[in-house]
Design goal:
The chain is of the alpha+beta class and about 260 residues long. It has 2 domains: about 1-80, Winged helix-like DNA-binding domain superfamily/Winged helix DNA-binding domain (Arc Repressor Mutant, subunit A); about 125-265, 2-Layer Sandwich (Endonuclease, Chain A). It is about 50% helix and about 20% strand. It has 9 helices and 11 strands. Helix 1 (about 1-15) crosses helix 2. The radius of gyration is 24 Å and the shape is globular.
Length: about 260
């Protein structure tokens, strides 16, 4: 039962990543495993207020994940998981397609408005940005790669690098003129995906901590993960800055780790 509970918790978190609220995910899972139930039965089983339960099942119906039976009292049934995920993916794709069609029009409207700001010394000050969630972080990494001309240095654990690998980060780097250097820490066993990268670009150091992950682009900007791949996707966040002092400091840390590191095995 404990194993099943952990699995259900993972499923709930994944449904939340697909856009469901915690309560919506609980209701969907309950209906999916216990079959057709009335709103009263759902409320009692999940210890939810009845009015909130009606709102939850109606919202799940609107999302195409739950259907109601024509009986009295009304019973609700969850779609099969595969169909539900396909529905959620299609809805997200449709949303992205809609946003993409607005991109050019929005850019044109923006350009029509004159630029009123006057450049001062303040516009040249050091900047920082807090990025929350995998999507914005990966987009920032892509921007860094596109502007990189000398070297692109990555320090992280295997889960960090694996997340970047699945997000095509290494493909983008390969297509750029920059020189890649990676420090992996810790590494107990070399994962298969690292074999696709030139071993001369990788060094390994042993550490008890898997929480350190940062990226340095040339000598101009750094991205530091405050919560890395050991956390859930939506809990991941990173801090970006073009501070010369910070870039130099993190660059020194990387080079020291690189010098102490050994070859990948």
């Amino acid at each position: 039962m404990y194993k099943h509970k952990l699995t259900l918790e993972k499923i709930k978190n994944e449904l939340i990543n697909f856009g469901l609220t915690k309560s919506q995910a609980k209701v969907f899972i309950f209906l999916g495993k216990y079959g057709a139930k009335t709103a009263s039965e759902i409320a009692k089983a999940l210890q939810l207020p009845r009015t909130e339960t009606y709102h939850l099942v109606n919202s799940l119906q609107n999302m195409g994940l739950v259907v109601s039976e024509l009986c009295h009292p009304t019973k609700y049934t969850a779609m099969k998981m595969k169909e539900a995920i396909s529905t959620l993916v299609k809805q997200e794709q449709d949303r992205i397609d809609t946003l993409a069609t607005k991109e050019e029009a929005l850019s044109e409207m923006w350009e029509e408005i004159p630029f009123f700001a006057v450049e001062t010394d303040e516009s040249k000050s050091e900047k920082m940005q807090l990025l929350h969630g995998t999507g914005p972080i990966i987009n920032k990494i892509k921007e860094m790669i596109n502007s990189s001309s000398e070297d692109f240095r990555i320090y992280g654990s295997v889960p960090d690098l694996l997340r970047m690998y699945h997000s095509d980060v290494f493909d983008w780097i390969e297509s750029s003129p920059t020189n890649l250097k990676i420090v992996v820490s810790p590494l107990n066993k070399s994962p298969e995906f690292l074999s696709e990268i030139n071993s001369e670009k990788i060094r390994v150091i042993q550490s008890e901590s898997e929480n350190k992950c940062f990226i340095i682009n040339d000598k101009k900007e750094v991205l530091i993960f405050m919560r890395n791949a050991t956390h859930q996707t939506r809990q991941t966040f990173a801090w970006w800055s073009d501070s010369e002092t910070l870039v130099d400091m993190m660059g020194s840390l990387f080079e020291l780790s690189w010098e102490k590191g050994g070859a990948i095995y």
